């Protein structure tokens, strides 16, 4: 039995004694001259009710119930299913700050959540492959968040086997600067000033979560971001690196 419930985060307010509105700003749905049976059904939907019980509560035929449900359906509670169950991994100097921000943003998944798994891996200056390798194996979509001295880079979404992985980006960086692996191994445990900015931390983790929710539910490959205290810029997704092999099946099918 499916219990229908209005999204508890949507406010219900009266515009005047005869007009009821769902949503604050913007108004999502307005019932002008709301009828008593509609009012009773809305009240029942705020606590949760099966469709068939609505007919009794509204004292109206099921066809009327269905017409009413067609109007309110977009505002029924579905956010729990629509969101992702995030795992946030952080290493390095500011891992506790990152963890506290993730918790404050409500990003840490409850163990009982049945939503699609998604990962956010956070590093200072660099992210070692060992921090996300299991997500590649287990087909968990993920995003890398890399704090530096003045900026934070939020990668585009890695959909394992379909888009370039974080190692591809690292290999491209090594191609551009052969000394990068040596630098990265020294920097990885060092502090990164950008991670000390609480607004940047929240912005970066929030952006990573938003990219993942979009990717999981629309299959769109969203671009990553570069964030600084001064603003943000979009970042092109990395190309698969020939040495990596993470999208080898895809490349074979394209080739
Ligand atoms: Zn790769």
Molecular structure report:
The chain is of the alpha+beta class. It has two domains: 3-75; 80-254, Rossmann fold, CATH 3.40.50. 38% of the residues lie in helices and 20% in strands. It is built from ten helices and eleven strands. It has helices at 36-47, 51-58, 62-72, 79-82, 95-104, 133-137, 166-176, 180-187, 198-218, 248-254, and strands spanning 3-4, 12-16, 19-22, 29-31, 49-50, 84-90, 116-124, 142-147, 151-154, 224-228, 231-235. It has a six-stranded mixed β-sheet. A three-stranded antiparallel β-sheet has the order 2-3-4, with no helix packed on it. Strands 1-5 form a two-stranded antiparallel sheet. The longest helix has 21 residues, at 198-218. The chain is elongated and about 75 Å long. The chain starts with a strand and ends with a helix. The model has no long low-confidence stretch (mean pLDDT 88). Zinc ion binds at residues 164-165, 167-168, 240-241, 244, 246.
């Amino acid at each position: 039995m499916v219990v229908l419930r209005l999204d508890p985060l949507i406010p219900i307010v009266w515009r005047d004694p005869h007009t009821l509105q769902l949503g604050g700003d913007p108004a999502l749905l307005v019932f002008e001259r709301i009828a008593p049976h509609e009012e009773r059904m809305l009240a029942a939907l705020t606590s949760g009710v099966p469709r068939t019980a609505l007919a009794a509560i509204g004292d109206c035929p099921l066809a009327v119930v269905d017409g009413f449900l067609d109007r309110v359906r977009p505002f029924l509670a579905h956010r729990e299913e629509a969101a992702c169950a995030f795992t946030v991994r952080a290493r390095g100097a500011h891992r506790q700050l990152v963890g506290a921000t993730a918790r404050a943003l409500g990003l840490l998944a409850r163990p009982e959540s049945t939503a699609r798994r998604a990962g956010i891996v956070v590093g200072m200056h660099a992210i070692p492959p060992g921090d996300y390798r299991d997500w590649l194996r287990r087909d968990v979509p993920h995003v890398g968040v890399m704090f530096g001295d003045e900026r934070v880079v939020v990668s585009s979404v890695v959909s394992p086997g379909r888009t370039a992985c974080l190692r591809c980006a690292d290999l491209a960086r090594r191609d551009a600067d052969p000394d990068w692996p040596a630098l990265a191994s020294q920097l990885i445990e060092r502090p990164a000033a950008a991670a000390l900015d609480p607004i940047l931390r929240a912005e970066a983790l929030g952006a990573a979560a938003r990219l993942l929710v979009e990717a999981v539910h629309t299959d769109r490959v969203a671009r990553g971001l570069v964030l600084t205290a001064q603003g943000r810029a979009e970042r092109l997704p990395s190309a698969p690196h020939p040495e990596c092999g993470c999208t080898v099946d895809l490349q074979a099918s394209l080739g």
